[in-house]
Amino acid sequence: MQNPFIIGILAWIFPGAGHFIQGRTQRALLIGGAIWLMLIVGVLSGGAYYPGFEFKDGQLLYLLNVFAKLGNGFGWLVSFLMSVTPSPDTPAMATFEYGGRMVEAAGLLNYLAAIDALDIHFGRKK
């Protein structure tokens, strides 16, 4: 794959895909596995849902949350679908806040993984 745009988009949408299409299978499995595991644990911990937290409640924090969650690529869709009809007990879970931070951290790590895949493509990293 020689097109950096395709590499960057694939790396963002599917964690680890940018490395995989460049033949870095071990790195792809490690990065993709870590990000997907963080996302799944975060979602199962109740982190996909933010009750009563909207743009008017704190614009900067809300935008940072949206930016971090969008970093999950396809995982964002999974997180969004899980938050549309949440269980009423979700905010009462002891792991609720930790789950939210895990989902956000997974998205931010995926941004770094996509940049890493592009760095490998451009020869800035081996």
Written overview of the protein:
With 126 residues, the chain is mainly α. It has one domain (4-121). It contains 6 helices and no strands. Helix 1 (4-13) packs antiparallel against helix 6 (96-121) and helix 3 (25-44) packs antiparallel against helix 6. The longest helix has 26 residues, at 96-121.
Summarize the SSE layout with pairings.
Layout: H1 4-13, H2 17-20, H3 25-44, H4 59-70, H5 74-84, H6 96-121
Helix pairs in contact: 1-6, 3-6, 4-6
Question: Overall 3D geometry?
Answer: elongated
Please state the structural category: mainly alpha
What's the Cα radius of gyration?
Answer: 16 Å
Please give the number of β-strands.
0
Largest sheet: none
Q: List SSEs in N-to-C order.
A: HHHHHH
Summary tags:
126 residues, mainly alpha, 0% strand
